[in-house]
Amino acid sequence: MRLRSANTVCSLRVLFLPVVLMAHSIGMAQETQYVSDKVLVPVRSGAGADYRIVNRGLPSGTALLVFAESDDGEWAEIETRGGTRGWIPSQYLQQEPPAALLINDLRVELEQARAERDRVVSQLNQSSTEVDEADETIIGLTTTIERTQAELTEIKRVSAAALDLDLMNQQLVAELESGRSSADLLRLENVRLRERIANNQMMDGALAVLLGVILAVVAPRLWPRKKRPDGWS
Question: What is the CATH number of domain 3-97?
């Protein structure tokens, strides 16, 4: 057969997974069975069923490089990633990945999504625990702040009373110093008065003595003397 020239760019195709319904054999007991989801496509050395088989069968979902097609379009020259090259019927090729691969990919994505969900749920639980701990911490801090504010209010009250007492003490000290100064002045004045009184008493005594002397001397002169009787009278 003449071969159709291959395109310059090799196209990537995968084996198509056909679903074939199997009929029950006559005489067998009637029972429900299912078609196998695994198809093996033999690879031949040429574009025809008479050519030698170079690979017993490629499983469905195998990625292939397509190099050429036969003139009738029923056969395609392919090569696997492992290096096996030959011809297979074109009916087993399709551009899109088969449903089995898509399902497997979806299963993988589903498992990843579940793992991500479990991770997020674990993080959420951990975050919830941290939130609860944070709430307890906030409650404890709020209680501590309220107690501290009450203590601060009491300290302010006591401090204000202490300031008042200190101010009163300072006033009393000032009054005491003023009283001491006044007492010292009074003592000094008292000493001065006593000295003055003593001086006055001394002067009074001296004046009394002087007056007594004066009286003793002068008084006889102030009184007329009595004439003595003489013999003539």
Answer: 2.30.30.40
